[in-house]
Amino acid sequence: MRIAIMGAGGQGGYYGGMLAKAGEDVTFIARGAHLKAIKAHGLTVKTPHAGEFTIDAKATDDPSEIGPVDLVMFCVKTYDTEAAANQIRSLVGHDTMVACPQNGVDSAERIEPIIGPGHFIPCVSYVNSIIEKPGVIALKFAGMTSLGELDGSMTPRIDLLIKTFERAGINVELRSDIRA
Fold first, then answer.
1. Which pLDDT belongs to residue 114?
2. Which residues contact 164 (CB under 8 A, 6 or more apart)?
3. Among 5, 15, 59, 151, which is 20 to 30 Å from 124 by CA?
4. How far is CA 169 from CA 14, 81, 96, 129, 172, in A?
5. Per residue in 7-25, pLDDT tens?
6. Does a structural domain hold residue 179?
7. What is the pTM of this model?
């Protein structure tokens, strides 16, 4: 699966690092010293359950360099939602999923008008991780990541996403009531 991580901070760095370690084709969208460190030395992820590992990470500050992907993990701060959603439009192809673990109640309403209907997948994330220093993500707590379709249905894309997360060692569950 081709994956773009929009916002390679603590949460995005953890998800992207785990997915890349599992063999997925991941590109990180980052900025500043963190981007520079990732490009120079890869991304190091420290976890209690998967140990410490470093991946040779692809990274950029320009989403338009990547092209359409299968999955965008939208891991930006809530106050950056609209600006970041505008930046990822070049990543969104016909079947692209945009999974958003912002834990906000209005993310779909804010993101879908920008990226188009049918791409958004809400998530609830109980993952606590930080940028320990540029290029290094430290996981403090890896709780459950819950996700599901907005209408509560089980779809092939949700099944694919859950299986991909499970292969990567990410604790994930399907929720038929994700809005709740």
1. 97
2. 1, 19, 22, 24, 71
3. 59
4. 11, 27, 22, 15, 9
5. 999 999 999 999 999 999 9
6. no
7. 0.95
Residue-number span of the structural domain to which 162 is assigned: 2-174
Q: How many domains does the chain have?
A: 1
**For residue 131, is it within any domain?**
yes
Residue 81 has pLDDT above 90, yes or no: yes
Whether residue 44 lies inside any domain: the answer is: yes
Query: Residue 122's pLDDT is what?
Result: 92
Q: Where are the beta strands (DSSP E) in the chain?
A: 2-6, 25-29, 43-47, 51-55, 58-60, 69-74, 92-100, 120-133, 136-147, 172-174
CA angle 73, 77, 81 (to 5 degrees): 75
Work out the angle at residue 52's Cα, subtended by the Cα atoms of residues 145 and 24, and round it to the nearest 5 degrees.
Answer: 55
User: Residue written as tokens 């958004």?
Assistant: 120
